[in-house]
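Q: Given only this backbone (147 positions), what sequence would you predict?
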């Protein structure tokens, strides 16, 4: 089965973007880390990033089709700032019935108040936050436990 790992806006800047908050590893490093975690858990990895909200909606719909075909282990979604703004992402997750883990590199609850609310959380099976980029590997292991 496929683990679909989706990354939203500004995550292409990992490595140089606020390294005190997000660390020094690049998105490519994160993909390599996810590749190892998926190999260890018997998943095929599909790893993507976009800065566009509608593209994330389209990808969630794609995940829904894979889910229906029995080929999806689940989705790990770091929606970036769209976490805090997007009813469209909330609706897409609800509308597809996919297993989804919400992920944040930083502990959003220890940061600005506008990061405390998530439109993703009520539609997610689980939430991972504050473990740095290692949270991606932890979320893959978590997904394996949900199969
Ligand atoms: C983030 C947290 C969000 O608040 C922020 O907008 C991001 C990254 C994280 O991974 O910690 O872009 O999702």
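A: Predicted residues:
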């Amino acid at each position: 089965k496929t683990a679909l790992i989706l990354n939203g806006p500004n995550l292409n800047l990992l490595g140089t973007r606020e390294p005190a908050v997000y660390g020094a590893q690049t998105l490519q490093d994160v993909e390599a880390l996810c590749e190892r975690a998926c190999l260890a858990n018997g998943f095929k990895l599909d790893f993507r990033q976009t800065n566009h909200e509608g593209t994330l909606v389209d990808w969630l719909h794609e995940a829904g089709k894979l889910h229906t075909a029995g080929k999806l282990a689940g989705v790990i979604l770091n929606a970036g700032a769209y976490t805090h703004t997007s009813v469209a992402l909330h609706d897409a997750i609800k509308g597809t019935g996919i297993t989804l883990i919400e992920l944040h590199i930083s502990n959003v609850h220890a940061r600005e108040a506008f990061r405390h609310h998530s439109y993703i959380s009520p539609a997610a099976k689980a939430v991972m936050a504050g473990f740095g980029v290692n949270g991606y590997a932890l979320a893959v292991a978590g997904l394996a436990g949900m199969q």
